[in-house]
Amino acid sequence: MLLAGLSASLPARADAYDDVGALMRSGRTAEAMEQADKYLATRPQDPQMRFLKGMIQRDTGKFDDAMATFTRLTQDYPELPEPHNNLAVLFASRNEIDKARASLEMAVRANPEYATAHENLGDVYVRLAANAFARAQQLGAGSATVAPKLNLIQQLVGGTKAVSPAVQPPSPAGLPAMPPKGNPP
User: Fold this and answer.
1) pLDDT of residue 99
2) Is 27 exposed, middle or buried (0-12, 13-18, 19+ CB in 10 A)?
3) What single string gives the DSSP state of each residue in 103-162?
4) What's the CA gap between 163 and 166, in Å, rounded?
């Protein structure tokens, strides 16, 4: 998770991440946010704590704040795939599928080996396909080729008739790795 040899304060930083993570897992999100804000007051550019703050915001229903946090992280640290992935989750939850796709493509570009982003991108593509087939069916109700494709997608995602919510929402990512040495912490 953290690169070795960054600084003498590394153990204190790891403890802060662990403390905030433990508070989050125990459902003590107000305390987790307080600890994250306290940490960020002295290290405002720290990507891992900013990421945790975005997760707390998301978990407490502050989706606009979480979107702002993850967006700033993607701007400051475009090489980290996790903020792109989590931003895509928020876009998908708002049915902003094209924005979710773009964010996931950035995550995959940042790390081609990032399995969660690939899986989420597949979910988004299925959702886009379902929407396109549903629209095609509306426009050409007699088409013999559209209905079987739409039915296949509906079976794939659980057989429901509601196209957009039927697709499994993308999965949020875990804590990002630190950026490569040489970037500002």
Assistant:
1) 97
2) exposed
3) HHHHHHHH-TT-HHHHHHHHHHHHHHHHHHHHHHHHHTTT-TTHHHHHHHHHHHTTS-S-
4) 5
End-to-end CA distance of the chain: 14
pTM (two decimals): 0.78
The arithmetic mean of pLDDT across residues 88-98, rounded, is 94
Q: Are 104 and 170 in contact (CB under 8 A)?
A: yes
Q: Pull the structure tokens for residue 127.
A: 């959702």
At 161 the pLDDT is: 40
27 sits in the region (left: phi over 0; alpha: psi -120 to 50; else beta) called: left
Produce one character per residue of 119-132: b if its CB has 16 or more CB atoms within 10 Å, e if not. Answer: ebbebbebbebbbe
Fill in the DSSP letter of residue 181: B
pLDDT band at 172 (very low <50, low <70, confident <90, very high): low
